């Protein structure tokens, strides 16, 4: 007589590691922060299959162009996880996305997020989303939806990653593009709040090599190194839009300084045949950059090709608009300054110059001089 097949214990979604009830609790905890980003254009609330945004105002545009961007925050998440501080990483996420959109003169309208976790911890998810909502408030962007996905077995219980996407709009004839730039234009810098969200693989490598813990107090920073590294990304959206409104066609280009550093990102928005020369002596990078480069013996070329070194956003303006631009940002509590000037480029390769980044056959950028102490 054949023996009976063994009976396996019942397997449920919960026993497989997915807690749908925890997900529901996380949604309840985040509702209030998300609601604060909503204006009358947002229809419905959380929980729908899709976020709805009333775009009927676009009928007033002659030729509306939609701009979109998506991004994450990279390995900065490792710092947030190690310190168990999760309410600022969302600000970084929003900054990385919306400030790419505003570069072309577009106003961000709405954003969605995606959070992948090893295990849903409602309070942690709510903290992450509260940061995303804060970033959306700072940029005038509606957070209309998102998704939290639990990946047991693929991610450790305390692991997570975040990504987001946003959509904006700009009138076609008001779009900022490289064809506005011409020799004689002036390059203006806006200060970063610190490292922002790029270069953290190098940062983490430096700290590991030096044997530094994130809790180490650093007198020259006035706080621990971990607290410094979690400083949220400055969001420039409303400041740049104010410049778009005030300067009109005298604003010739805008560049968001992210991965690749200052020169590489500015080169992306310059047309072929132009070259910008930037003077390092016009600003002092924040102490954290000097600390990391000394601690890791990081070559200057690597530091300049990895970090923003104190410049988070760059504008190229007509020379006649320089004073008005500086006054505009001063009135918005941003200490903008003149970085350099745009000239002609004859195509000759110059040592230390950067050209042709991110697949864009654009202009050339060169940094000269030494940083101000």
What does this molecule look like?
The protein is α+β, with helices and mostly antiparallel strands. A 7-stranded mixed beta sheet has the order 10-12-7-13-11-15-14, sandwiched between helices. A 4-stranded mixed beta sheet has the order 3-6-4-5, covered by helices on one side. Helix 4 links the parallel strand 4 and strand 5 (142-150). The chain is built from 11 helices and 15 strands. It comes from Kineosporia succinea.
List the main descriptive attributes of the protein structure presented here:
alpha+beta; globular; 373 residues; seven-stranded mixed sheet; 11 helices; single chain; four-stranded mixed sheet
Write the layout of secondary structure elements.
Elements: H1 20-35, E1 42-43, E2 52-53, E3 64-72, H2 76-83, H3 89-101, E4 107-117, H4 122-139, E5 142-150, E6 160-171, E7 186-191, H5 200-210, E8 217-218, E9 223-224, H6 225-229, H7 237-247, E10 251-256, H8 261-267, E11 274-279, H9 287-295, H10 300-304, E12 311-317, H11 322-330, E13 337-344, E14 353-355, E15 364-368
Parallel strand pairs: 4-5, 11-15
Antiparallel strand pairs: 1-2, 3-6, 4-6, 7-12, 7-13, 8-9, 10-12, 11-13, 14-15
Helix pairs in contact: 1-4, 3-4, 7-11
GO molecular function, one term: phosphoribosylformylglycinamidine cyclo-ligase activity
Protein name: Phosphoribosylformylglycinamidine cyclo-ligase
Keywords: ATP-binding, Cytoplasm, Ligase, Nucleotide-binding, Purine biosynthesis
């Amino acid at each position: 007589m054949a023996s009976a097949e063994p009976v396996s214990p019942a397997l449920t979604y919960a026993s497989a590691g997915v807690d749908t009830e925890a997900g529901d609790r996380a949604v309840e905890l985040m509702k209030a922060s998300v609601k604060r980003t909503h204006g009358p254009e947002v229809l419905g609330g959380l929980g729908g299959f899709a976020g709805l945004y009333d775009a009927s105002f676009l009928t007033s545009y002659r030729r509306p162009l939609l701009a979109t961007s998506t991004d994450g925050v990279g390995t900065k998440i490792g710092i947030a996880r190690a310190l168990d501080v999760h309410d600022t990483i969302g600000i970084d996420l929003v900054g990385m996305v919306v400030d790419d959109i505003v570069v072309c003169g577009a106003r961000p309208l709405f954003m969605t997020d995606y959070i992948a976790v090893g295990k849903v911890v409602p309070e942690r998810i709510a903290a992450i989303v509260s940061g995303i909502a804060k970033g959306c408030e700072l940029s005038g962007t509606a957070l209309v939806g998102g998704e939290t996905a639990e990946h047991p077995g693929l991610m450790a219980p305390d692991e997570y990653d975040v990504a987001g996407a946003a959509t904006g709009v700009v009138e076609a004839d008001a779009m900022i593009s490289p064809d506005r730039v011409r020799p004689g234009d002036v390059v203006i810098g806006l200060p970063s709040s610190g490292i922002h969200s790029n270069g953290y693989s190098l940062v983490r490598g430096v700290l590991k090599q030096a044997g530094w813990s994130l809790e180490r107090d650093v007198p020259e920073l006035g706080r621990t190194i971990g607290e410094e590294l979690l400083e949220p990304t400055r969001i420039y959206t409303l400041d740049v839009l104010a410049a778009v409104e005030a300067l009109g066609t005298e604003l010739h280009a805008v560049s968001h300084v992210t991965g690749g550093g200052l020169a590489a990102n500015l080169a992306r928005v310059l047309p072929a045949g132009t070259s910008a020369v930037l003077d390092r002596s016009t600003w002092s990078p924040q102490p954290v950059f000097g600390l990391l480069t000394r601690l890791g013996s990081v070559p200057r070329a690597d530091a300049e090709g990895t970090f923003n070194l104190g410049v988070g956003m760059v504008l190229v303006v007509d020379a006649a608009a320089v004073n008005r631009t500086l006054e505009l940002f001063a009135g918005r509590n941003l200490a903008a300054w003149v970085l350099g000037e745009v000239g002609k480029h004859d195509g000759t390769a110059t040592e230390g110059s950067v050209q042709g980044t991110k697949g864009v056959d654009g202009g050339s950028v060169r940094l000269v001089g030494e940083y101000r102490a």
